[in-house]
Amino acid sequence: MKVGLFFGTFNPIHVGHVIIANHIVEYSDLDEVWMVITPHNPHKNKRSLLANHHRYQLVYLALENFSNIKPSNIEFDLPQPNYTIKTLAYIIEKYPHQEFSLIMGEDNLKSFHKWKNYETILENHHIYCYPRISEGQIKTKFDTHHKIHKVNAPIIGISSTMIRQGIKNRKNVAPMLPKEVWQYIDEMSFYKK
Description:
The protein is α/β, with parallel strands linked by helices. It is built from seven helices and six strands, in the order E-H-E-H-E-H-E-H-H-E-E-H-H. Strand 2 (32-37), helix 2 and strand 3 form a beta-alpha-beta unit. Helix 2 runs antiparallel to helix 7. It has one domain (2-157): Rossmann fold, CATH 3.40.50. The mean pLDDT is 91. The chain has helices spanning 15-27, 52-63, 84-94, 106-110, 118-124, 160-168, 179-188; strands at residues 2-8, 32-37, 69-72, 99-105, 127-130, 148-150. The protein is globular and about 45 Å long.
């Protein structure tokens, strides 16, 4: 089975994440997409994150009706901060009969050469890259690499940061979130401060 790993803090998961994951699983050779909730991204401030179990619950709620897109908390018990290369080593050992690829936005591909052991990742895994809103074309040294597949997915102009700010400023952000996700966030009064 071919599994695409879509890493993110998902703070919170929004309809854009679901649209991208669904598009990639429907229009590529991947059998499943796993939304891997990252407990702590080395490049992000951890204080702004909801607790791991709350973000997992939000992803779970968002994906209940998608049989080939699954939430994954596989990084929760790994040493912090998490690096993709270590997660991949762990996941391959745990699921030896599955083939894992990465899913990332083209903005991440631009800085991929700064990732820990990026050469090893690229040697052993395919990368499915979706377009992001950006200034002009993002040219990278990976543009023609045979293991990088550009996916013509919809360009999404929604961000988790935009949603958190909207909630804090008492704006109606409900249309940007799966219904169950918005209900959970609202009930728990998340992101209001």
